[in-house]
Amino acid sequence: MKLGYTRHEIDHLTHEARPTTTPNWWILFGGISFGLISIGVGIAQFSYGQEVIFILSLIVIVTLMHRLTREMQSEARAVLLGTAILIFFFRAVPTPGPGSSWWMIDVLGFDQSFMAKLSLIGSVLSLLGLFLFRRFMAERSIASVVAILTLISTLLSLPTIGMYYGLHQWTAALTGGLVDARFIAVIDTALESPLGHIAMVPMLAWIAHSAPAHLKATYFAIMASFTNLSLALSQLLTKYLNKTYVVTREVQDPVSGLTTLPANYAELGHLLIVVTVVGFLVPFGAIWIVKTFRLKSV
Predict the structure, then answer these.
(1) 82: burial class by Cβ within 10 Å (0-12, 13-18, 19+)?
(2) How far is it, in rounded angstroms, from Cα 152 to Cα 108?
(3) How many angstroms separate the Cα of 199 from the Cα of each of 109, 136, 145?
(4) Quick one: fold of 74-292?
(5) Strands, DSSP E only, in 110-261?
(6) Secondary structure of residue 93 in the 3-state scheme
Protein backbone atom coordinates (compact mmCIF):
# COMPACT_ATOMS: atom_id res chain seq x y z
CA MET A 1 0.00 0.00 0.00
CA LYS A 2 2.94 2.32 0.71
CA LEU A 3 4.21 1.70 -2.81
CA GLY A 4 0.88 2.84 -4.24
CA TYR A 5 -0.66 -0.48 -5.22
CA THR A 6 -4.44 -0.80 -5.18
CA ARG A 7 -6.24 -3.43 -3.13
CA HIS A 8 -6.96 -5.45 -6.28
CA GLU A 9 -3.30 -5.36 -7.33
CA ILE A 10 -2.18 -6.39 -3.83
CA ASP A 11 -4.55 -9.37 -3.86
CA HIS A 12 -3.23 -10.38 -7.27
CA LEU A 13 0.42 -10.18 -6.15
CA THR A 14 0.01 -11.98 -2.81
CA HIS A 15 -2.36 -14.79 -3.79
CA GLU A 16 -1.56 -17.48 -6.32
CA ALA A 17 -4.29 -18.52 -8.68
CA ARG A 18 -5.82 -21.83 -7.65
CA PRO A 19 -5.74 -24.37 -10.46
CA THR A 20 -8.97 -26.08 -11.40
CA THR A 21 -9.08 -29.70 -10.30
CA THR A 22 -10.66 -32.13 -12.73
CA PRO A 23 -11.10 -35.88 -12.36
CA ASN A 24 -8.82 -38.20 -14.30
CA TRP A 25 -11.34 -40.53 -15.91
CA TRP A 26 -8.69 -42.96 -17.11
CA ILE A 27 -7.60 -43.64 -13.54
CA LEU A 28 -11.13 -43.70 -12.13
CA PHE A 29 -12.56 -46.07 -14.72
CA GLY A 30 -9.36 -48.12 -14.80
CA GLY A 31 -9.49 -48.60 -11.03
CA ILE A 32 -13.19 -49.45 -11.01
CA SER A 33 -12.83 -51.90 -13.90
CA PHE A 34 -9.88 -53.59 -12.27
CA GLY A 35 -11.76 -53.90 -8.98
CA LEU A 36 -14.79 -55.48 -10.66
CA ILE A 37 -12.64 -57.92 -12.65
CA SER A 38 -10.68 -58.91 -9.53
CA ILE A 39 -13.90 -59.56 -7.60
CA GLY A 40 -15.28 -61.58 -10.51
CA VAL A 41 -12.13 -63.72 -10.74
CA GLY A 42 -12.16 -64.26 -6.99
CA ILE A 43 -15.83 -65.31 -6.93
CA ALA A 44 -15.36 -67.62 -9.92
CA GLN A 45 -12.47 -69.34 -8.10
CA PHE A 46 -10.36 -70.00 -11.18
CA SER A 47 -7.47 -72.43 -10.79
CA TYR A 48 -5.03 -69.69 -11.70
CA GLY A 49 -7.02 -66.78 -10.30
CA GLN A 50 -4.01 -65.34 -8.44
CA GLU A 51 -1.97 -65.29 -11.65
CA VAL A 52 -4.86 -63.77 -13.65
CA ILE A 53 -5.30 -60.96 -11.13
CA PHE A 54 -1.55 -60.27 -11.16
CA ILE A 55 -1.45 -60.03 -14.96
CA LEU A 56 -4.53 -57.78 -15.05
CA SER A 57 -3.04 -55.59 -12.33
CA LEU A 58 0.20 -55.32 -14.26
CA ILE A 59 -1.61 -54.33 -17.46
CA VAL A 60 -3.73 -51.70 -15.72
CA ILE A 61 -0.87 -50.12 -13.77
CA VAL A 62 1.57 -50.11 -16.70
CA THR A 63 -1.11 -48.49 -18.88
CA LEU A 64 -1.74 -45.78 -16.29
CA MET A 65 2.01 -45.22 -15.89
CA HIS A 66 2.38 -44.86 -19.66
CA ARG A 67 -0.35 -42.22 -19.81
CA LEU A 68 1.10 -40.32 -16.88
CA THR A 69 4.66 -40.29 -18.17
CA ARG A 70 3.60 -38.80 -21.51
CA GLU A 71 3.54 -35.42 -19.78
CA MET A 72 7.17 -35.73 -18.73
CA GLN A 73 10.36 -34.89 -20.61
CA SER A 74 12.12 -37.88 -22.18
CA GLU A 75 15.04 -37.75 -19.73
CA ALA A 76 12.76 -37.60 -16.68
CA ARG A 77 10.71 -40.46 -18.15
CA ALA A 78 13.84 -42.60 -18.53
CA VAL A 79 14.82 -41.88 -14.92
CA LEU A 80 11.39 -42.85 -13.59
CA LEU A 81 11.25 -46.02 -15.71
CA GLY A 82 14.74 -47.14 -14.71
CA THR A 83 14.07 -46.49 -11.03
CA ALA A 84 10.73 -48.31 -11.14
CA ILE A 85 12.30 -51.38 -12.78
CA LEU A 86 15.08 -51.58 -10.19
CA ILE A 87 12.77 -51.29 -7.21
CA PHE A 88 10.17 -53.63 -8.71
CA PHE A 89 12.62 -56.50 -9.18
CA PHE A 90 14.41 -55.81 -5.89
CA ARG A 91 11.13 -56.26 -4.01
CA ALA A 92 9.89 -59.14 -6.20
CA VAL A 93 12.41 -61.70 -4.95
CA PRO A 94 10.76 -64.76 -3.36
CA THR A 95 10.94 -65.80 0.29
CA PRO A 96 11.17 -69.28 1.81
CA GLY A 97 7.54 -69.06 2.91
CA PRO A 98 6.10 -70.40 6.18
CA GLY A 99 8.30 -73.50 6.13
CA SER A 100 11.24 -71.54 7.50
CA SER A 101 9.19 -70.33 10.49
CA TRP A 102 7.82 -73.84 11.10
CA TRP A 103 11.37 -75.21 11.18
CA MET A 104 12.51 -72.50 13.60
CA ILE A 105 9.62 -73.32 15.95
CA ASP A 106 9.71 -77.12 15.70
CA VAL A 107 13.44 -77.80 15.32
CA LEU A 108 15.22 -74.77 16.79
CA GLY A 109 12.69 -74.40 19.60
CA PHE A 110 11.70 -70.77 19.02
CA ASP A 111 8.48 -70.17 20.94
CA GLN A 112 5.78 -67.59 20.11
CA SER A 113 7.23 -65.07 22.55
CA PHE A 114 10.66 -65.19 20.92
CA MET A 115 9.19 -64.98 17.39
CA ALA A 116 7.20 -61.91 18.50
CA LYS A 117 10.38 -60.32 19.84
CA LEU A 118 12.10 -60.91 16.49
CA SER A 119 9.18 -59.22 14.73
CA LEU A 120 9.32 -56.25 17.11
CA ILE A 121 13.08 -55.89 16.64
CA GLY A 122 12.60 -55.91 12.87
CA SER A 123 9.85 -53.25 12.94
CA VAL A 124 11.73 -50.87 15.24
CA LEU A 125 15.03 -51.18 13.41
CA SER A 126 13.31 -50.66 10.05
CA LEU A 127 12.29 -47.18 11.18
CA LEU A 128 15.68 -46.52 12.72
CA GLY A 129 17.41 -47.67 9.53
CA LEU A 130 15.59 -45.08 7.44
CA PHE A 131 17.04 -42.41 9.69
CA LEU A 132 20.55 -43.82 9.93
CA PHE A 133 20.94 -44.51 6.20
CA ARG A 134 19.47 -41.24 4.91
CA ARG A 135 22.89 -39.94 3.83
CA PHE A 136 23.73 -43.28 2.25
CA MET A 137 20.56 -43.01 0.14
CA ALA A 138 21.08 -39.35 -0.74
CA GLU A 139 24.63 -39.71 -2.04
CA ARG A 140 24.21 -42.81 -4.22
CA SER A 141 22.10 -43.75 -7.22
CA ILE A 142 19.29 -46.24 -6.76
CA ALA A 143 21.27 -48.75 -8.85
CA SER A 144 24.13 -48.57 -6.37
CA VAL A 145 21.72 -48.79 -3.43
CA VAL A 146 20.01 -51.88 -4.88
CA ALA A 147 23.38 -53.54 -5.63
CA ILE A 148 24.70 -52.93 -2.12
CA LEU A 149 21.45 -53.99 -0.43
CA THR A 150 21.34 -57.16 -2.53
CA LEU A 151 24.88 -58.10 -1.53
CA ILE A 152 24.13 -57.46 2.14
CA SER A 153 20.84 -59.40 2.00
CA THR A 154 22.62 -62.34 0.39
CA LEU A 155 25.27 -62.38 3.10
CA LEU A 156 22.67 -62.11 5.86
CA SER A 157 20.74 -65.08 4.50
CA LEU A 158 23.77 -67.33 4.99
CA PRO A 159 23.39 -67.71 8.82
CA THR A 160 19.90 -69.22 8.39
CA ILE A 161 21.21 -71.66 5.79
CA GLY A 162 24.12 -72.40 8.11
CA MET A 163 21.81 -73.12 11.05
CA TYR A 164 19.87 -75.62 8.93
CA TYR A 165 23.13 -77.51 8.47
CA GLY A 166 24.14 -77.19 12.14
CA LEU A 167 26.03 -73.89 12.38
CA HIS A 168 24.38 -72.98 15.71
CA GLN A 169 25.48 -76.28 17.26
CA TRP A 170 29.11 -75.62 16.30
CA THR A 171 29.08 -71.99 17.52
CA ALA A 172 27.32 -72.96 20.78
CA ALA A 173 29.93 -75.61 21.49
CA LEU A 174 32.72 -73.17 20.65
CA THR A 175 31.41 -70.31 22.84
CA GLY A 176 30.06 -72.26 25.78
CA GLY A 177 26.44 -71.89 24.68
CA LEU A 178 26.55 -68.12 24.17
CA VAL A 179 26.25 -67.99 20.36
CA ASP A 180 23.31 -70.37 19.99
CA ALA A 181 20.43 -70.38 17.51
CA ARG A 182 18.56 -67.56 19.27
CA PHE A 183 21.64 -65.36 19.44
CA ILE A 184 22.28 -65.82 15.71
CA ALA A 185 18.59 -65.17 14.88
CA VAL A 186 18.50 -61.91 16.88
CA ILE A 187 21.70 -60.56 15.30
CA ASP A 188 20.61 -61.60 11.82
CA THR A 189 17.18 -59.97 12.23
CA ALA A 190 18.70 -56.79 13.64
CA LEU A 191 21.05 -56.45 10.67
CA GLU A 192 18.58 -57.42 7.94
CA SER A 193 15.39 -55.63 8.99
CA PRO A 194 16.18 -52.06 7.78
CA LEU A 195 17.13 -53.15 4.28
CA GLY A 196 13.73 -53.75 2.69
CA HIS A 197 12.45 -50.19 3.13
CA ILE A 198 15.54 -48.24 2.14
CA ALA A 199 15.23 -48.75 -1.63
CA MET A 200 11.77 -47.13 -1.72
CA VAL A 201 12.90 -43.77 -0.36
CA PRO A 202 14.89 -42.46 -3.38
CA MET A 203 11.96 -43.07 -5.74
CA LEU A 204 9.46 -41.36 -3.46
CA ALA A 205 11.81 -38.41 -3.01
CA TRP A 206 12.27 -38.16 -6.77
CA ILE A 207 8.49 -38.08 -7.33
CA ALA A 208 8.10 -35.34 -4.72
CA HIS A 209 10.85 -33.31 -6.41
CA SER A 210 10.39 -33.96 -10.13
CA ALA A 211 6.81 -35.07 -10.84
CA PRO A 212 4.47 -32.43 -12.38
CA ALA A 213 2.93 -30.32 -9.62
CA HIS A 214 -0.65 -31.16 -10.56
CA LEU A 215 0.08 -34.92 -10.70
CA LYS A 216 2.25 -35.54 -7.64
CA ALA A 217 -0.46 -37.32 -5.65
CA THR A 218 -1.39 -39.42 -8.69
CA TYR A 219 2.26 -40.37 -9.23
CA PHE A 220 2.58 -41.43 -5.60
CA ALA A 221 -0.55 -43.60 -5.89
CA ILE A 222 0.45 -45.25 -9.18
CA MET A 223 4.06 -45.91 -8.17
CA ALA A 224 2.99 -47.24 -4.78
CA SER A 225 0.62 -49.62 -6.57
CA PHE A 226 3.43 -50.66 -8.93
CA THR A 227 5.83 -51.44 -6.10
CA ASN A 228 3.11 -53.28 -4.16
CA LEU A 229 2.56 -55.34 -7.30
CA SER A 230 6.14 -56.54 -6.97
CA LEU A 231 5.21 -57.99 -3.57
CA ALA A 232 2.40 -59.92 -5.29
CA LEU A 233 4.97 -61.32 -7.73
CA SER A 234 7.15 -62.25 -4.76
CA GLN A 235 4.24 -64.21 -3.27
CA LEU A 236 3.65 -66.02 -6.58
CA LEU A 237 7.31 -66.99 -6.89
CA THR A 238 7.27 -68.14 -3.26
CA LYS A 239 4.23 -70.32 -4.00
CA TYR A 240 5.93 -71.95 -6.98
CA LEU A 241 9.11 -72.64 -4.99
CA ASN A 242 7.07 -74.14 -2.15
CA LYS A 243 5.42 -76.48 -4.65
CA THR A 244 8.83 -77.50 -5.99
CA TYR A 245 10.52 -77.89 -2.60
CA VAL A 246 7.81 -79.30 -0.36
CA VAL A 247 8.09 -78.51 3.36
CA THR A 248 5.40 -79.78 5.72
CA ARG A 249 4.70 -79.39 9.41
CA GLU A 250 3.32 -82.17 11.57
CA VAL A 251 -0.48 -82.17 11.75
CA GLN A 252 -2.34 -84.23 14.35
CA ASP A 253 -5.97 -85.24 14.45
CA PRO A 254 -7.61 -83.22 17.29
CA VAL A 255 -9.76 -86.16 18.36
CA SER A 256 -7.50 -89.20 18.18
CA GLY A 257 -4.18 -87.39 18.55
CA LEU A 258 -2.74 -89.44 15.69
CA THR A 259 -0.38 -87.80 13.20
CA THR A 260 -2.17 -87.22 9.90
CA LEU A 261 0.71 -85.39 8.20
CA PRO A 262 4.31 -85.92 9.30
CA ALA A 263 6.81 -83.09 9.49
CA ASN A 264 9.19 -82.97 6.54
CA TYR A 265 12.02 -80.45 6.49
CA ALA A 266 14.33 -82.47 4.25
CA GLU A 267 14.02 -80.06 1.32
CA LEU A 268 14.16 -76.85 3.37
CA GLY A 269 17.92 -76.52 2.93
CA HIS A 270 17.62 -76.63 -0.86
CA LEU A 271 14.74 -74.13 -0.68
CA LEU A 272 16.78 -71.68 1.37
CA ILE A 273 19.72 -71.94 -1.03
CA VAL A 274 17.54 -71.42 -4.13
CA VAL A 275 15.81 -68.40 -2.55
CA THR A 276 19.19 -66.89 -1.74
CA VAL A 277 20.51 -67.43 -5.27
CA VAL A 278 17.35 -66.02 -6.89
CA GLY A 279 17.40 -63.08 -4.48
CA PHE A 280 20.92 -62.31 -5.68
CA LEU A 281 20.43 -62.82 -9.42
CA VAL A 282 17.09 -61.01 -9.93
CA PRO A 283 18.12 -57.53 -8.66
CA PHE A 284 21.44 -57.68 -10.51
CA GLY A 285 19.53 -58.79 -13.61
CA ALA A 286 17.38 -55.66 -13.26
CA ILE A 287 20.51 -53.50 -12.98
CA TRP A 288 21.85 -55.14 -16.16
CA ILE A 289 18.57 -54.39 -17.99
CA VAL A 290 18.65 -50.73 -16.95
CA LYS A 291 22.28 -50.37 -18.02
CA THR A 292 21.78 -52.27 -21.30
CA PHE A 293 18.81 -50.19 -22.44
CA ARG A 294 20.53 -47.00 -21.26
CA LEU A 295 17.82 -46.13 -18.79
CA LYS A 296 18.66 -43.99 -15.81
CA SER A 297 17.90 -44.11 -12.13
CA VAL A 298 17.63 -41.61 -9.32
Answers:
(1) buried
(2) 24
(3) 33, 11, 7
(4) Growth Hormone; Chain: A; (1.20.1250)
(5) 251-252, 259-261
(6) coil
